[in-house]
Design a protein that fits this description.
Strand 3 and strand 4 form a beta hairpin. 53% of the residues lie in helices and 9% in strands. Strands 2-1-3-4 form a four-stranded mixed sheet, covered by helices on one side. It has two domains: 98 residues, 3-Layer(aba) Sandwich (Glutaredoxin), CATH 3.40.30; 106 residues, Glutathione S-transferase Yfyf (Class Pi), Chain A, domain 2 (Up-down Bundle), CATH 1.20.1050. By secondary structure, it is an alpha+beta fold. The chain is built from eight helices and four strands, in the order βαβαββαααααα. Helix 1 crosses helix 8.
Length: 217
C-alpha cells in the first residue's frame, strides 16, 4: 500500500471532534508505520458528484492508494492490518477478526445510539424517555466487555487492530461517566489512548479542525 491519502471532514462541531471515524484509519496507519496524506472535504461537499465517486454514500473516511479506493472504517482498518503482523498476528487472524466485528457489530450500536440521543437530540421529549433504556443497553455491553478485559491489557492480551476499533467505539460515550464505572475498561481505554500512534492520529485529525474552525463557531 503506497501513496496513501485519508479523507475526512475539514471541520466538525466540538462534540464530534476526535470521534469521526477517519481517526481509526489514521491510528491504524500510524501503528503500521505507513505514511499518509490528509485530505479534507467540507460537509456540504459530501453530495458532490466528484466525492460520491469516491464514496457512494458521501461519508468519511475514504482511503486512496495505488491499490485503489476503500471505504468503511472497519474494512479499511482490516486492509491495513493485513499488511502489519503487529495489528493482525499471523497466528491470531481469526481471533483478531472476531473482536473487530465485535467492536463494530455488538458494542458500537448501543453506544452510538446513546451518543446520538445525547448529542443530537438533547432535551427532546422522546429522547429523554428513551435514554434510560439506552443507558441500560450500554451498561450491559460494558459489563461483559469489562469482565473480558479484567486481567488483560488488550483484547487479545497484546495490541491488535481490534483494539483500534474497540477504543474508538468506546470514545463515543466519552461525554458520560459510564466507562469510568468499570475500572478494567477505563484503564484499557487510557492505555490505548496513551499509545504514541493514537496521539499522532488524534493530532492529525484535530490540527485541521483547528485550522478550519468557522469564525462564528
Amino acid at each position: 500500500m503506497e501513496k496513501i491519502a485519508v479523507w475526512g471532514f475539514s471541520w466538525v462541531p466540538p462534540f464530534a471532534q476526535g470521534l469521526v471515524r477517519d481517526l481509526r484509519v489514521r491510528w491504524a496507519l500510524e501503528e503500521a508505520g505507513l505514511a499518509y496524506e490528509s485530505r479534507w472535504i467540507d460537509t456540504e461537499e459530501r453530495s458532490s458528484e466528484a466525492y460520491r465517486r469516491k464514496h457512494p454514500f458521501g461519508m468519511v473516511p475514504v482511503l486512496e492508494s495505488r491499490d485503489g479506493t476503500l471505504i468503511e472504517s472497519g474494512a479499511i482498518v482490516y486492509a491495513i492490518a493485513e499488511q502489519c503482523d503487529a495489528l493482525m498476528p499471523a497466528g491470531q487472524r481469526a481471533e483478531t477478526l472476531t473482536w473487530m466485528f465485535t467492536a463494530l457489530n455488538t458494542v458500537e450500536p448501543p453506544l452510538w445510539n446513546l451518543f446520538v440521543l445525547d448529542q443530537l437530540h438533547q432535551g427532546e421529549a422522546w429522547a429523554n424517555l428513551r435514554r434510560a433504556g439506552a443507558v441500560d443497553e450500554v451498561k450491559a455491553r460494558l459489563t461483559a466487555l469489562s469482565q473480558w478485559l479484567d486481567g488483560r491489557d488488550y483484547l487479545l492480551g497484546h495490541f491488535t487492530a481490534a483494539d483500534v476499533l474497540m477504543t474508538t467505539v468506546l470514545r463515543f460515550i466519552r461525554h458520560t461517566d459510564l466507562v469510568a464505572g468499570f475500572p478494567p475498561l477505563d484503564a484499557y481505554v487510557r492505555r490505548c489512548e496513551a499509545r504514541p500512534a493514537f496521539q499522532a492520529a488524534l493530532r492529525s485529525q484535530m490540527t485541521d479542525y483547528a485550522r478550519n474552525t468557522p469564525v462564528a463557531a
